[in-house]
Amino acid sequence: MSTNNSGLEIVKIDVKDVRFPTSLGAHGSDALHVDPDYSCAYVTTTTKNGTQGFGLTFTCGRGTEIVVLTIRSMKKFIIGKNAGDIFSDFAGFWRTITNDSQMRWIGPEKGVAHLAAAAILNSLWDLWARLENKPLWKLLVDLEPEVLVSTIDFRYITDVVTKEEAIQMLKDKQIGKADRIKYLEEHGYPAYTTQVGWMGYSDELVHSLCEKYLKLGFKYFKVKVGVNFEDDYRRCSAVRECIGPNNFLMVDANQAWSVNEAIEWMKKLAPLKPMWIEEPTSPDDILGHAAISKALAPYEIGVATGEMCANRVMFKQFLQSGAMQYCQIDSARIGGINEIIAVYLMAEKLKVKVCPHAGGVGLCEMVQHLQFFDYVSVSGTMQDRLIEYVDQQHEHFVDPCVVVNARYMPQAHIGYSTQFLPGILDKFSYPHGSEWKKMIKDGLFPPPDEVELLNA
Ligand SMILES: C[C@H](O)[C@@H](O)CC(=O)C(=O)O
Ligand SMILES: [Mg+2]
């Protein structure tokens, strides 16, 4: 790497529990997450020379304190290390923090431990992009294939993609790269909206939001389903009527059903022409998703999943077994960009479209960089690919994503776009931020419990 290592010793890792009271308006609600408070564990990594990297992992309120505690436990793997050395052997560092011989028992590579690792890794990638003075996606597309691939831990995935193949895939896509960058900068990347159909929204609100997003140029609309069939049919029919036959409807059950129930439910929704059913059943049930995919193929309904897929090994099997037609990587659940690139490469090799999960705090900000990278350097196409867009919490970021006419437009800002504006932590840190103190005092939320207070 070109970065001069002097002054890059990591001297501080700060982590905060940050929550926004979205449950009050049912924003983000679905069949199983009925009252999410969009939140994050927010990491600031500081080097000796004062350069900072900002990273986060998304959470839904309660439990953020546990992720924060886990990040604190992982500090020992980072403090005192030189950031330049980390980036020179990023795959080695990745193993250190995801596979410590004692801590791996609480994973490995899944759950809270992996969410914590993701927040730290995201802050390091942000730091790297800032040191190179580039937007994150530009760092990814500019790195030599050998260097980019050196950040990936290939253990468990070489039966689908090897290091050598990965390098070759990236080299093959050097052709036409400049044209794709130009196209991306001029035209942006297509988005779909989930804002219209949260489970807790009234029919009237769903209708008015459909009209609003149609006017904003959106063509793809996602609606939450999975609690009651009659309600789903009524809501989805209303959305279909509003958006017309030429726009696209997707539905998301957030794991509500068993396999056969998912198939039967979706056959009955098929006349409304949904393009995909997202998370029809348990996110761990690979063969179940494969069965649903097979049963729904004659109805031209694809299966989308990935926002709760634990790691690259699970993704590998979903991709190998025809269990997902839309691969929904999440920027903050698996082990940072190191592991996400591995998934993009496997998806490209197995010819599955990647349509990232976003919407939660900072996720739209992050996944735009990943999908831009995919377009320029991996798949080389935007065909049938979309980035999720939810219009929430962007106003809290220094460099929010910019969506114009339903397309994410690349911005020149350096980094991974995850730095909060000054003052946000003072207001929304849980439970002692000024907004939380007020809401708890007003009885809108219960007081924090003893574990939540541990981090405060
Ligand atoms: C709890 C989250 O809001 C979830 O419903 C998000 C999701 O499934 C999606 O955006 O897709
Ligand atoms: Mg979803």
Overview of this protein structure:
This protein has 456 residues and is of the alpha/beta class. It is built from 18 helices and 13 strands. The strands form two sheets. Strands 4, 5, 6, 7, 8, 9, 10, 11, 12 and 13 form a ten-stranded mixed β-sheet that branches. Helix 11 links the parallel strand 6 (248-252) and strand 7 (274-278). Helix 13 packs parallel to helix 14 (336-349). The protein is globular and about 60 Å long. The two termini are 38 Å apart. The relative contact order is 0.14. Bound molecules: ligand LWAPGFLV and magnesium ion. Ligand LWAPGFLV is lined by residues 28, 30, 33, 36, 60, 194, 252, 254, 307, 357, 359, 388. This is Mitochondrial enolase superfamily member 1. Residues 203-299 form the Mandelate racemase/muconate lactonizing enzyme C-terminal domain. Pfam families: MR_MLE_C, MR_MLE_N. Its EC number is 4.2.1.68. GO terms for molecular function: L-fuconate dehydratase activity; magnesium ion binding.
